[in-house]
């Protein structure tokens, strides 16, 4: 049983002041004429600060497209996307690039670490590129949270998959972004390493006050979140608070695509 039905209010009030990011009547269309595909069909949803939200849905539901639009990685066809009080659609490329660099963290399943840099250098790389010095106290807190204190001098090849993803998590958190977007962050990990990373993500929300939005297909991964938003055919069809793996799995069975691998 889920906590609500498909209404705009159940998806988070787009006007709420607590929202780290919001989409209002978001439309994303690919192609024209007979090739036209509506990936997002007037989606309205808000993501509160200091919460861990999972986005789920079957293949082609629009979950990755929604995350990419929220993160400013993809353009929109209609409606609006706002990060805090900043409307993304009106930003020029240079300002959008700066916003993504300074206010958004990204975690991808491919890790995206530079093999010639050690763990610490990979963590601070985005700030080094931006010419900013890290907040040493915050950086140490992040490193302690993800448990990397004794691995900072190691290069990616010397780390396990789980450790590499923890470096990627720390890199996303190190600049203290307003929001972190995670796209299938455990997709390339075994179940034990995946569970470790998910615990670290949850701890970063509870201990560090981070805001995380994660796309996943895995019911067990979604259970680490505070909330799960379900998409189907480009629309939000349900919104679950305090999820468990069993409740999420039962909901996903209606789509016939549920997986439970973590």
Report on the architecture of this protein.
With 262 residues, this protein is of the alpha/beta class. It is 33% helix and 24% strand. The chain has 8 helices and 10 strands. The chain has helices at 63-70, 93-103, 119-130, 136-146, 161-174, 191-208, 219-222, 245-253, and strands spanning 19-30, 37-48, 52-56, 78-83, 86-87, 104-108, 179-183, 212-215, 227-232, 235-241. It has a 6-stranded mixed β-sheet with strand order 6-7-8-3-9-10, sandwiched between helices. It has a 4-stranded antiparallel β-sheet with strand order 2-1-4-5, with helices on one face. α4 (136-146) runs antiparallel to α5. The two termini are 22 Å apart. The relative contact order is 0.19.
């Amino acid at each position: 049983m889920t906590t609500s039905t498909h209404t705009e209010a159940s998806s988070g009030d787009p006007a709420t002041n607590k929202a780290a990011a919001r989409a209002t009547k978001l439309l994303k269309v690919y192609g024209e004429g007979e090739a036209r595909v509506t990936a997002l069909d007037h989606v309205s949803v808000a993501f509160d600060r200091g919460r861990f939200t999972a986005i789920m849905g079957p293949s082609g539901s629009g979950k990755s497209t929604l995350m990419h639009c929220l993160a400013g990685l993809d353009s929109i066809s209609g409606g609006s996307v706002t990060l805090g009080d900043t409307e993304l659609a009106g930003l020029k490329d240079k300002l959008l690039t700066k916003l993504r660099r300074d206010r958004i963290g990204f975690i991808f399943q491919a890790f995206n670490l530079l093999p010639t840099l050690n763990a610490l250098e990979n963590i601070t790389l985005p700030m080094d590129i931006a010419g900013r010095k890290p907040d040493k106290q915050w950086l140490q807190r992040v490193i302690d949270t993800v448990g990397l204190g004794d691995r900072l001098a190691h290069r990616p090849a010397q780390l396990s998959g789980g450790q590499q993803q923890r470096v990627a998590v720390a890199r996303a958190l190190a600049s203290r972004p307003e929001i972190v977007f995670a796209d299938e962050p455990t997709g390339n990990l075994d179940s034990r390493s995946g569970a470790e990373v998910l615990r670290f993500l949850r701890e970063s929300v509870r201990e560090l006050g981070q805001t995380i939005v994660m796309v996943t297909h895995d019911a067990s991964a979604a259970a680490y979140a505070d909330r799960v938003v379900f998409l189907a055919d480009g629309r939000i069809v349900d919104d679950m608070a305090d999820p468990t793996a069993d409740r999420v799995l039962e909901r996903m069975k209606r789509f016939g695509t549920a997986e439970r691998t973590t």
